[in-house]
Sequence to fold (165 residues):
Amino acid sequence: MRFGIITLSDRCARGEREDLSGNALAAFLDVENCAVVKRLLLPDDESALRRTLIEWADSDELDVILTTGSTGFAPRDIAPEATKAAADKDAPGLAELMRAESYKKTKHAALSRAVAVIRRRTLIVNLPGSPKGAEENLGFIFPLLPHAVQLLRDDPNSEQSHKSI
Fold:
């Protein structure tokens, strides 16, 4: 699977803080032998994120785009809005699963506004901004991603995956 990672953080974009969440996701994917084809650091800017998601998904270079950060209640948290604006279809089960599993660890998970969507043949998933939260949430959905990608790519072998889940 080919991944893109977008970290949303005003402070990281200004160079005031290291991108620990993007690094944690890249390390997770490396262990899983997945290619991180693109990485980007953006401020919390809705139009910039929307444009980037559209450009990356439409390039057909990626199977999954992960965003980290900007999913909460703060006034500058814009990832869900930008992601929905770039979407062709919703994929709500992934965000529901992440919230349900996260809620077992922290009640604050109920405050997540993260979404998962599809644009063309690319899955886009919002993850929390903390390194631990981003990695845990990716771990919750990761077993489902190979089959999701098969379905998006109209892989004739996708039915075989039903037996392994």
Q: What stands out?
A: The domain at 2-163 is CATH 3.40.980.10 (Molybdenum Cofactor Biosythetic Enzyme; Chain A). The chain has seven helices and six strands. Helices lie at 10-13, 20-31, 46-58, 79-86, 92-103, 131-141, 145-152. Residues 46-58 form the longest helix (13 residues).
